[in-house]
Design brief:
By secondary structure, this protein is α/β, with parallel strands linked by helices. The protein has a single domain (26-176), classed as Nucleotidyltransferase, domain 5. Helices cover 41% and strands 22% of the residues. The chain contains six helices and six strands, in the order αβββαβααβαβα. It has helices at residues 4-15, 69-86, 99-106, 116-129, 144-154, 170-182; strands spanning 28-36, 41-49, 55-63, 93-96, 134-137, 161-165. Strands 5-4-1-2-3-6 form a six-stranded mixed β-sheet, with helices on both faces. The protein is globular. It holds the Pfam family RVT_3. GO terms for molecular function: nucleic acid binding; RNA-DNA hybrid ribonuclease activity. Residues 30-151 form the RNase H type-1 domain.
Length: 185
Amino acid sequence: MADPNTLDTRVTAAVMKHWAPPPAGKIKLNVDAAYQANRKTGGWGFVLRDEEGHALLAGAGRLEFVHDVVSAEARACLSALLAISVQGVTEVEIESDSAILVSAVTSSSHSQAVGATIFAEIKMLLQLHFANSKVSFAPRSCNNVAHNLAKIGVSWDPDQSVVWVDPLPYFVRTLVIRDRTESPQ
């Protein structure tokens, strides 16, 4: 007989293949990083969407002097949170495809990992500006827009970044529409 916990895990993994909207009245931030180990550079990307999947904000940028993929993910999350806080967002559901990042920023313990300082900054920002927010893991297939924006950010000039406010550029709207049409509603 199969272990019921294992079965539940398989069912959850099978169902969660595409981006899913947040509950009514909430907004969701998807954030991701791209990392080039050979150059020690990376890119970050994010998209902020409402319960209907409409993008409210998006952003991307390049990261310099990145030591590892976890540091890139942490810097991407911090960049996204700073960008949306400037726009007045105070409550958000945050999704990342980095289980290490999610674990580090949701843990009450102090991380000793590379990037611990950035994790601490993220935790402080969450406490100060996003008190009722939730941080959770989502597989990359649920994080496509942020992932593609991060890949674009890698190709930009050092420390170049941009945050787009609605109306978003055509290529960003196309990524969002593709994500919505491929997602089960």
